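Worked Example 4.2. Consider the chain below.
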Amino acid sequence: MNFQQVEQQLKRHNLEVFTTQEFINILGIRRDVAAVKLTRYKQAGYLISPRRSVYYLANEVEDKYKIANKIYSPSYVSLDSALSKYDLIPETVYTITSVTTKATREFTDDQTVYRYYRIKKEAFTGYHKEGDTLWADPEKAVVDYLYFVAQGKRELNDRLHIKKIDKSKVLSYAKCFNDKRLNTLIAHVFK
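Applying the procedure from the previous section yields the following C-alpha cells:
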C-alpha cells in the first residue's frame, strides 16, 4: 500500500491527526510494520510528528488547534490562545496554549509550539467543542489565565479587555480552583 492509499484511508476516517494506535487500527497492520511505515512517511515529508506516537498529514491540517487537542489529552485550548481568539487581548498569539490535568509540557513541530499548563482536575471544566477542537469558554479562559498570574507563573497583561466578560461566570469558575490568591486577583481586576 503506497502513501496515497494510506492517506485516503486516514481521510476517509477523518484522521488528519492520528496516533500510532489509530494508524494500526485503520490499516489493520502489526505495530512493527506501522513503525517502519510511519518513520518512512515522516522522513519523506508526508507526515509531521510533534510528539512521539502523534502524527498529522503535512499540508493537510490547517487547524493547528485540532492538533493541540490530540497531542496531549485531556486538554482544551485556553489562556493566551483563547484570549486572543475572543479579542480579550490585542496581541496575536503564535504559541498554542492549552490547559490539562497532566504535567505541564511543551511540544514543537516545524511550525508551531504547543504549550500545556497543568490545572487541578476540579478546575478542568468550562470548555466547549467547536468543530474538532475543545475551547475554553471566554470566562474560563480569563480565569485560567488569572490563576497562573496569581501563582506568579505569568505576568498580568494590562491590556486585558474584560468589559464583555460575565463576572458571575468568572466567579463560578474561580470556585473550582479554591485559591485565595486567584480570588484576590479577580477582585482587583474586576473592581
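The first helix runs from residue 3 to 12. The chain has eight helices and nine strands. Compare this with Example 4.1 before moving on.
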